[in-house]
Amino acid sequence: FFFNDTATTEIYTEQIVGSVRCVQETVRILAQQHPECKFLNINAEKAPFFVSKLAVKTLPTICLFKDGILQDSVVGFGDLGERDDFKTIELARRLLRTGIIKPRTDAEKGFKLKRGTNSGNNNDDSDSD
After folding, report:
1. Inter-residue contact 55 to 8 (CB < 8 Å)
2. Rounded to an integer, what distance in angstroms lies between the CA atom of residue 42 and that of residue 44?
3. How far is 96 from 16, CA to CA, in rounded Å?
4. Phi first, then psi: what are they for 9, rounded to 5°?
5. Cystine design at 103: which of 32, 42, 57, 109 (Cβ 3.0–4.6 Å)?
6. Rounded to whole angstroms, what are the CA distances from 94 to 44, 55, 117, 120, 126?
7. pLDDT single digits (tens) 75-116
8. Would the pTM of this model clear 0.90, i.e. be above it?
9. What is each CA distance from 31 to 11, 49, 56, 108, in whole angstroms?
């Protein structure tokens, strides 16, 4: 179901409720802003095949797909400032760098990618690729 599409898949478990709600709310906001991308939530306990196939070890994990191929993963909160109360723009920038979404908001449009790299020049060192 990912063929010729971009998609993010959040893999979570009900046991980490507070952190999951934060990620799910951020994903919900981005889904409304970016209809060009499919946003899916998968409960790890109910989908062990996907967890195994994607080699997910830390929850939550956000898998970024383009044309059905896993491009990148946001594992836990390490890539989002080591906090579960990260800002929506932080995750949006990660999706922009990977080419999963197109810039739509003013903050996203102001985010420039360096030529030939996956890192932006937004002076935000919290994401290392």
Report:
1. no
2. 6
3. 27
4. -130, 115
5. 109
6. 22, 20, 13, 9, 10
7. 888 778 777 788 899 999 999 999 999 999 888 888 766 444
8. no
9. 16, 25, 22, 14
